[in-house]
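FW: tagging you since you asked about this chain on Friday. Here's the raw sequence from the shared folder, copied in full. Didn't touch anything.
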Amino acid sequence: MALTGATGFLGRHLLDVLLADGYKVRALTRSNQEFRTDLEWIRGDLSDPAAMTALTKNTDIVVHAAGLIKAKSRTEFFRINRDGTERLLKSARDNGIKRFLFLSSITAREPHLSHYAASKSAAEGLLLDREWPFETLVLRPPAIYGPGDMEILKILKATKFGLLPAPGSKKNRFSMIHATDLAHAISIVINSQSFTDKKLIEIDDGKENGYTIPDVAKSIADATGDKIAKCFPVPRWALRSLGAVNLLISKTLSTTPMLTPAKATELSHPDWAASNEKKITINGWSTEYELTSGLKNTIEWYRQNKFL
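HL: got it, structure written out here
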């Protein structure tokens, strides 16, 4: 199996699960990595055609989990998330692979909201709108959390002050899934009949209609034993203004910001809950974590590693 994104937050969980499930994995990396049994590292990135060829040679399955979640411009998002995907697809075609799973994002269904969403939607189009000599599946996860996720760490730290901001509105809904549960779903679906049931599926932890920020605040309190943080809405205009300031500062410091005006618009969208119409039953898979137990697992990891 060929895997991209193996060194990222989700990719580390995915790599552990795939190796534990008996797959022999060839994974892409930009830096030196430790030796692991049944794992071959390929040095390079999505802009390197030679690395793409080496990655997809003599394998049947490609799981494409790499991608930018933050960038300085729309062009940079598209260069990696769309163009890198196209380069990988062509290498997969040339090397005769049989199945290609693309890990997209639930935000791709609203490509007008942010550069990230637009780049993921454009990458989906490469699989869905073209004919390929192999089976393809687009998998759209919602918000992914778990040990190693530095984004949810910010939320956990905010609750320590008794406050939790809600982008846009406290009524906005979004689905979530623990990284380990998502990794197990991918490991099962890539070799199952479910792979061919649909071209595009969405996935979540089973909570119909997702969660609100107050739901998350309560689950954090249940997981920690602390008081429930007070949730307050941050209007989209205010969040976009903060994103504009953040973008200006990042240009001055030559850093890459997570919160930009476009990202603020995406975060403020009222409905990021997984669609029941786009879900499928994955035989042999069920979630291990609901939100409270998943957050407890995540918080314990942060405490053990001195982040909290």
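FW: The radius of gyration is 19 Å.
HL: agreed, and The chain has eleven helices and 13 strands.
FW: great, closing this out.
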